[in-house]
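Researcher: Please translate sequence to structure tokens.
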Amino acid sequence: AHMLEAMRHRVVQVVWGRAHNGSDRDTSS
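Model: Translation complete:
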């Protein structure tokens, strides 16, 4: 269950970052 939550968290962070900062910080992070 930990792996699934970790993966979901990562996806959510990437999506949020892309929607809020575009796809520029996604590469930096």
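Researcher: Any highlights?
Model: The chain is about 85% helix and 0% strand.
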